[in-house]
Amino acid sequence: MIKWKDDYKIGVEEIDEQHKKLFEITNRAYELLEDKFCIDKYSKIVDILEELKDYTVYHFKTEEEYMLGIGYKRFLSQKVEHDEFVKKLSDIDFDKIDEDQNKYILGILDFAVNWIADHILTKDKLITSKK
Known about the structure:
The chain has helices at about 15-35, 40-70, 75-90, 95, 100-130. By secondary structure, the protein is mostly helical.
C-alpha cells in the first residue's frame, strides 16, 4: 500500500489531484489482495487494470499538455517514459492472471507503485523546480 504524502506534491493542483487518484487505484489492488473472502478476483483485477490504464492515459495527456504549455525542456524524455508505462499496461496478458491471482496482483502493485512514486519524485518534481 502506498500513502499519499506532501512529498509527492509537484505544486500543480490538477496534476497533484490526478497523482492522488493513481495512488487510490493502486491501493484498491492492494485491498483486493488482502481480501480473504474474495476467492475469484479475476474480473476485479481486470477492472482495476483497465481503470489504471485509462486513467493513466488521461493523466499523462493532462501532464504533457501542461509541460508543453510551459515549454518544459525535458518533455520528450517524460513522454517516452509515459508511453512505456502505458505500453506495459496495454501488454498485460490477461490469460496469465488466472494462473495465480494474488501473485499477479503483487506484480501489478510492485510495478505500478514503484514506477508512480519514483516517477513523481524524480521526474515530475522537475517540471516545477526552478533549477
